[in-house]
């Protein structure tokens, strides 16, 4: 939550009687630099050694290109699905009271808590041709495991909590009086929902979508077991990084990693823009 | 909106017949439908995979389940996972508290940028998180030749696993505490200092009790991720059985060897950890909602 802050005038920090500023900030900056910034810089240095043309060359390699396309394309569809159902889940959990609501609310965080490898093998065994769901899908002619459909399922699993948890607090904060006013002024419930209730939720839904998308693109553990990892078909970009590394092709691994980092930072920027827009338009994030 | 409004448009007209709340919610059947959609979706996508882990683990009976833990490799994996979490979690705890103190209790230039930088590891793919450590410490890495000359091994050894784990769990404690401590302000610490407490004393007796539930919450989530991390650890581990395999990596190896019962048995241990984490987390949220509030609203 943004705390209204007075901008210090050309002073590094505002005076305070609280001690420990130098110590804690110094420690924070040192650890941050050693653990996060320095290793990330190593990647940037490596990638800049390749140059834009070098990165382009790797990216346009057919196998790399199709892996990137699978990662980004499937993640986009999965994030869309997670957003739609996540919004319904968030609405149901905040607005309606029914038995077991709290337990279901807790279940939403399962993908955060369950190790990705565990989720991965569980999904793979469920959706395999002889698995519980896979067998049913096979009857209607859908092959889930070892195809992009399997990647989609894993990405929905991993992205769902982001979609739910970003929307939920905003639904809780909706002013009921506005809905009453809308109803009293003669709007139908559907009209109230689409014209009064939903528009202020759009920024949160977009943020949840972007977070789920970014997570899906980078996800590894829960996908590789169900994906089958067929080059050109169901091979994801993170797996290709692992493969390049095991072949000691550091340049190739760095190039793919750089492309993925660039996209995830763009997504981050996109989220910040949505939130800035939402602050101006609706007065809150 | 220019049409004439007839009296029948007013839901108020028969307000005496139905509770006033009905104008701010959906019709009964719509509610039932939405609840059904939500429950079926969650059951299918989230609960079923969890149940599968336990069903598959016990598919061949208790004997086969227990046999998975009799292996020395499984013991080694459990030990390494515990050691990794025992280093990474306290490390991030200390960092998180220090960072939150500096960021929440003081106003300084570049504070927002600092918060963004601390959050960075959450937006990096786990595989890339592992890769960057290989680029620094690997044999072809920046420090590679120096490490080789001094016979220090980090990649494909325990230190690399610990470092990668610290990286992926880096933001947990800080991002939980910063909004909480910002909301609490500095008045109580200032009072303690005015009354003659030393800075450390004020922190221990005033700040720490204020943030304890938020801190416990963050440590819980940090620990779950530290013990369960797969992608980043997989890249730096080298998969040496009995030496650099954590529990999630052990699960992968067993699964790829088609030893499904053992894979799911070991996975059930991690799923149990996830369940315990979720239960404690939910209890904390229900009981201490106020003490976690600042972050819960985030």
From TrEMBL, chain A:
<feature type="transmembrane region" description="Helical">
    <location>
        <begin position="220"/>
        <end position="243"/>
    </location>
</feature>
<keyword id="KW-0812">Transmembrane</keyword>
<dbReference type="InterPro" id="IPR035906">
    <property type="entry name" value="MetI-like_sf"/>
</dbReference>
<dbReference type="InterPro" id="IPR011865">
    <property type="entry name" value="CysT_permease"/>
</dbReference>
<comment type="subunit">
    <text>The complex is composed of two ATP-binding proteins (CysA), two transmembrane proteins (CysT and CysW) and a solute-binding protein (CysP).</text>
</comment>
<dbReference type="InterPro" id="IPR000515">
    <property type="entry name" value="MetI-like"/>
</dbReference>
<feature type="transmembrane region" description="Helical">
    <location>
        <begin position="250"/>
        <end position="274"/>
    </location>
</feature>
<feature type="transmembrane region" description="Helical">
    <location>
        <begin position="145"/>
        <end position="164"/>
    </location>
</feature>
<feature type="transmembrane region" description="Helical">
    <location>
        <begin position="21"/>
        <end position="47"/>
    </location>
</feature>
<keyword id="KW-0764">Sulfate transport</keyword>
<keyword id="KW-0472">Membrane</keyword>
<keyword id="KW-0813">Transport</keyword>
<comment type="function">
    <text>Part of the ABC transporter complex (TC 3.A.1.6.1) involved in sulfate/thiosulfate import.</text>
</comment>
<feature type="transmembrane region" description="Helical">
    <location>
        <begin position="106"/>
        <end position="125"/>
    </location>
</feature>
<dbReference type="GO" id="GO:0015419">
    <property type="term" value="F:ABC-type sulfate transporter activity"/>
</dbReference>
<dbReference type="Pfam" id="PF00528">
    <property type="entry name" value="BPD_transp_1"/>
</dbReference>
<feature type="transmembrane region" description="Helical">
    <location>
        <begin position="196"/>
        <end position="214"/>
    </location>
</feature>
<protein>
    <recommendedName>
        <fullName>Sulfate transport system permease protein CysT</fullName>
    </recommendedName>
</protein>
<dbReference type="GO" id="GO:0005886">
    <property type="term" value="C:plasma membrane"/>
</dbReference>
<feature type="domain" description="ABC transmembrane type-1">
    <location>
        <begin position="68"/>
        <end position="271"/>
    </location>
</feature>
<comment type="function">
    <text>Part of the ABC transporter complex CysAWTP (TC 3.A.1.6.1) involved in sulfate/thiosulfate import. Probably responsible for the translocation of the substrate across the membrane.</text>
</comment>
<comment type="similarity">
    <text>Belongs to the binding-protein-dependent transport system permease family. CysTW subfamily.</text>
</comment>
TrEMBL record, chain B:
<keyword id="KW-0764">Sulfate transport</keyword>
<keyword id="KW-0812">Transmembrane</keyword>
<keyword id="KW-0472">Membrane</keyword>
<keyword id="KW-1133">Transmembrane helix</keyword>
<protein>
    <recommendedName>
        <fullName>Sulfate transport system permease protein CysW</fullName>
    </recommendedName>
</protein>
<dbReference type="InterPro" id="IPR000515">
    <property type="entry name" value="MetI-like"/>
</dbReference>
<feature type="transmembrane region" description="Helical">
    <location>
        <begin position="113"/>
        <end position="134"/>
    </location>
</feature>
<feature type="domain" description="ABC transmembrane type-1">
    <location>
        <begin position="78"/>
        <end position="279"/>
    </location>
</feature>
<dbReference type="InterPro" id="IPR005667">
    <property type="entry name" value="Sulph_transpt2"/>
</dbReference>
<dbReference type="Pfam" id="PF00528">
    <property type="entry name" value="BPD_transp_1"/>
</dbReference>
<keyword id="KW-0813">Transport</keyword>
<dbReference type="GO" id="GO:0015419">
    <property type="term" value="F:ABC-type sulfate transporter activity"/>
</dbReference>
<dbReference type="InterPro" id="IPR011866">
    <property type="entry name" value="CysW_permease"/>
</dbReference>
<keyword id="KW-1003">Cell membrane</keyword>
<dbReference type="GO" id="GO:0005886">
    <property type="term" value="C:plasma membrane"/>
</dbReference>
<comment type="function">
    <text>Part of the ABC transporter complex CysAWTP (TC 3.A.1.6.1) involved in sulfate/thiosulfate import. Probably responsible for the translocation of the substrate across the membrane.</text>
</comment>
<feature type="transmembrane region" description="Helical">
    <location>
        <begin position="78"/>
        <end position="101"/>
    </location>
</feature>
<dbReference type="InterPro" id="IPR035906">
    <property type="entry name" value="MetI-like_sf"/>
</dbReference>
<feature type="transmembrane region" description="Helical">
    <location>
        <begin position="32"/>
        <end position="58"/>
    </location>
</feature>
<comment type="subunit">
    <text>The complex is composed of two ATP-binding proteins (CysA), two transmembrane proteins (CysT and CysW) and a solute-binding protein (CysP).</text>
</comment>
<keyword id="KW-0997">Cell inner membrane</keyword>
<feature type="transmembrane region" description="Helical">
    <location>
        <begin position="154"/>
        <end position="174"/>
    </location>
</feature>
